Amino acid sequence: MIRSVLTVAALLLAGTAQADGLVDNVNGVALDSRGQVVRFGGILVDKDGKVVRLVPKGEKAPKKLDWRSDMGGRIVMPGMIDAHGHVMSLGYRALELDLSNTRSLADAQAAIQSYARSNGNRQWILGGGWNQEAWGLGRFPTAAELDAAAGDKPVLLERADGHAVWANSAAMKAAGITARTVAPAGGRIELLPNGQPSGVFVDSAASLFDAARPKPSPRERNAAFLKAQELLLSTGITATADMGTSVDDWLVFRRMGDIGQLRVRIMSYGAGLDTALTIAGAGPTPWLYGDRLRMGGIKLYADGALGSRGAWLKAPYSDAPKQTGLSFINDTTLLNLLSRGTMDGFQFAIHAIGDRANRQVLDAIDELASSYKDDRRWRIEHAQVLDPADLPRLGKNGIIASMQPVHATGDRMMAEARLGPARLTGAYAWATVLRDGGRLAFGSDYPVESPNPFVGWAAAFTREDPNGQPPGGWRPEEKVTREQAWKAFTQDAAFAGFAEQKFGSLLPGQKADFIVVDRDPVAATPAELRATRVIETWVGGYKAWPLKEEPKATGR
After folding, report:
1. Shortest CA distance to 205 belongs to which of 175, 243, 238?
2. Which residues form the Amidohydrolase domain (predicted)?
C-alpha cells in the first residue's frame, strides 16, 4: 500500500547533508525499513557513493552539485540481491557447454555433438545443465548415450543442480573408474544391470574425476568471473552471496578488485572450514574494495539434492523405495565444525534439502545456540523439505531460511513424484516460515536456475511458473506478498549476509546501489514483472552496467 505523501516526504527528508551528486528526474520506487512502498523523484549521493537522502517528487534540485544524472523519468529502484548463488560456476557454464535449454535426451545429444565439432582443440568437453526430469526420460542418462554424441573424447557434464555428473566412457577411463570403484562417503555411483558404472555419479562421487579433469588456467578463471559479473549486473543484481568460495575463486575476486574490475558486491562463504581459515585467518575478513568483497561465512553441506535423489529423507523416496538419499556429515562432526568456526566469528550457511538433513541442522543449532547467544544469523540454505513439526523451529535462534522461489515452480512435478502428497505439507513453505517468526532470504541458486531476480520475485507471490501453471499457484497457501518477496530479494538478503548497514535499500547512509528498469515492478502483472528489462545498473553511485569501457580502480 502506498503511504501518504506527507509521511513519505518526512521519511525521505531524513538526513540533509550536502551531497556531491544527484540522480535526478526519476520515477523512483523502493521499500522503507518496514517493507512498505515509497516513491521518490531523485537520489542525493555523497562523495563516498552513499545515499544522503531520497528526494521527494517535485522538490527542486540543489544548486551546488559536482554532478547530475538525468534519468528522463524512468523507473529507478534498489539493486536486487541474490542470497544464494555460485559466481564462478555461472561464468563457467556460460563459457562451456550449456544444456539447460535442452528438452530431451536427443536434443542434448545434438547439442553435445555440435559443441564437440566446434571445439576440437579442447582436451575434455566440460559443461552442465542437464536434467533428466526436464527431458521426460524417467531415468538417468548413460555413458553409452554420451559416447554416441561425443565419441572418444572425455566428456564430463554437471547435472542442473550441481549434485551429479554425467561422464562418458573416455572420462571414466581417464579417471580410472571401473566396476570395482567404490563411491566415497556422501556419494553414489549409478550402476547398470550388469554392475558396471552407468556414467552418472551423484554428489561426492563426482570427486572421482577431480584428478583427471583439466583445471582452468588463471586466464580462464578471470574470463569466467567477468562473464558471470556481466550476467549478474545485466539482470539487476548489485550484490550476491557466493556459496562455496574456493581459494582459487577468492584469488580471482581479489585480482579483479586489485585492478578495479570488481563491480558487483560479493558476500563470500568459504567452501568449508579449512578453506575459510586459509583465506581469512582467524575470523571474517574486513570489507574490501569499497564494500565490494568480504568473506564472512562458511558453507557446509548436510545432504544432496532432490532431483538426483541425494536429499536426505526420513522415509524412502516415493519413486525409489530403496533410497533415502545421502547424509554428508555425521552429527558429531557437524557440531565440531559449527563450534570451531563460530568461536572465530564466522557465520554458517548449511545446505539442507531433505527433511532428515534439515532436522539434523536444526538439532545442531539448538545445541549450540545456548553457548553462542549473540547475533549469529544461522543460515539454512534451501530449507526445501521439512517435517511440518520442524517448521516452527526455523523461527528460533535467529535462523534464516535462505530459499529460492524458482525451485518451487520448477521442481513441483518432480517433488510430487519424489515425496508423495504427505510430505509436500512441509515443502517450499515460505509463508509458514514467516508466520512462525522465521526470516526469509531469497535467491536463485544460479547457475542451477537463471539469476534473473524478477522471475524469482514473480514466482514467490504467485507460485506459478512462467506459463502460469498451475493456475492459482502450487500449494497457494505458501505464497508470500509481492512486498515480502521484494524485501527478501533486497533488505533481507543483505541482512542474511550481515550487510544491512552497507546496502540492500536506499536508506540514508547506505551505498547508492540502484537499477533503472523499463516498468514499475509494483504495478506490473506477474507476466510483465518476469519480462522486466534492466536498462542500467549502478553500484556505489557509479554506473556499473552497461559500460563503454572498463572501470578504473575507485574507492567507491
Report:
1. 175
2. 70-541
